[in-house]
Design a protein that fits this description.
Number of helices: 5
Largest sheet: 4 strands, mixed
Structural class: alpha+beta
Oligomer: single chain
Protein name: Polymerase beta nucleotidyltransferase domain-containing protein
Radius of gyration: 15 Å
Order of helices and strands: HHEHEHEHE
Distance between the termini: 31 Å
InterPro entries: NT_sf, Polbeta
């Protein structure tokens, strides 16, 4: 319910963020264009997300391109705008997605955020591959 979202119920916010992340993953999968996988980690997976929590994603791509960053920034803007409407606030978080882009080489070498994929502390969940 909208009132549960507005009150900041952690279970509701975690579930909402998981659903949004799943939707982002489905959208990127449909686009194809070099997207290989989407992983979710952080407060949405730990069940302690709040009103201001972001959605922590690792997106695996064939190659890092400016177009990928631009697409994800536009997607984030659309999501955060809708989120503010849902909350009934004119203000709110400046961003909803915290996306780290990892190319297949970084994933293979476990370099940068590629190393996070196999971290027991972070335990990211693959939403699709």
């Amino acid at each position: 319910r909208r009132s549960d979202v507005q009150r900041g119920e952690p279970e509701v916010h975690s579930t909402l963020r998981y659903a949004v992340a799943k939707g982002v993953g489905d959208y990127l999968r449909e686009l194809g264009c070099g997207f290989r996988a989407v992983y979710l980690y952080g407060s949405a997976m730990n069940g302690n997300a709040g009103i201001a929590s972001d959605i922590d994603l690792i997106v695996i791509v064939e190659h890092k391109l400016d177009q990928v960053c631009n697409l994800l920034q536009r997607l984030d803007l659309a999501l955060v705008t809708s989120y503010r409407v849902l909350l009934g606030f004119a203000y709110g978080p400046a961003s909803l997605l915290d996306v780290h882009i990892v190319d297949v080489e970084e994933e293979r070498k476990r370099d940068g955020y590629g190393a996070v994929l196999c971290s027991p502390e972070t335990s990211p969940v693959c939403l699709w591959r």
